[in-house]
Specification:
alpha+beta; Alpha-Beta Plaits; four-stranded antiparallel beta sheet; 41% helix; globular; binds adenosine-5'-diphosphate; nucleoside diphosphate kinase activity; magnesium; metal-binding; metal ion binding
Length: 169
């Protein structure tokens, strides 16, 4: 890698592996917004090297939530999950980069904060499964489904991050 060399910059850009376009959905849940954790959570994804391509704040409807959590609607905790997730605004983001789906899950930590290692978002900022601060898609297919559910295509931006050749080959 020759930093500052024009030709090397263009070469690394044009040969970049297509999986740097992988995208995932991350949401700061109402407890995270109320506790003013939005900035710290965004900072972790920025400093890791991922690229923000979509961001919005909204009050979630029960309808959107039932689609988002379609596999959980028959769970005993679902009614309290709806109360929690509709208790205030959420901040929803789409992050892009190499292996971003799996890396985001690792950064967020296990569903139950009691099992989440220190250094993960849930391990650092939460103690109970019912208030675990953040969401991250759990698979490539899940990410695609959730991104389509929460965002319109026009609200996701394709932009070149000037340091991309410093974070991936
Ligand atoms: P994850 O958010 O880690 O992908 P799940 O999809 O299994 O986990 O669950 C979705 C969300 O439902 C969790 O993040 C949490 O907010 C809530 N939840 C899951 N299990 C429980 C539970 N036993 N009690 C209360 N809330 C729960």
């Amino acid at each position: 890698l020759r930093l500052g060399h024009g030709a090397a910059w263009h070469r690394s850009k044009s040969t970049a592996h297509p999986d740097v376009k992988e995208r995932t959905l991350v949401a700061v849940k109402p407890d995270g917004v109320q506790r003013r954790l939005v900035g710290q959570i965004i900072q972790r994804f920025e400093q890791r090297g991922f690229k923000l391509v979509g961001l919005k704040m909204l009050q979630v409807s029960e309808d959107l939530l039932s689609q988002h959590y379609c596999q959980l609607t028959s769970k005993p905790f679902y009614p309290s999950l709806v109360d929690y997730m509709t208790s205030g605004p959420v901040v929803v983001m789409v992050w892009e980069g190499h292996n971003v789906v799996q890396s985001s899950r690792t950064m967020v930590g296990p569903t139950n904060p009691a099992a989440a290692p220190t250094g993960t978002v849930r391990g650092d900022f939460s103690i109970h499964v019912s208030r675990n601060v953040v969401h991250a898609s759990d698979s490539l297919e899940g990410a695609q489904r959730e991104i389509q559910l929460w965002f319109q295509g026009k609200d996701l931006l394709n932009w070149d991050c000037c340091d991309q050749s410093l974070t991936v080959e």
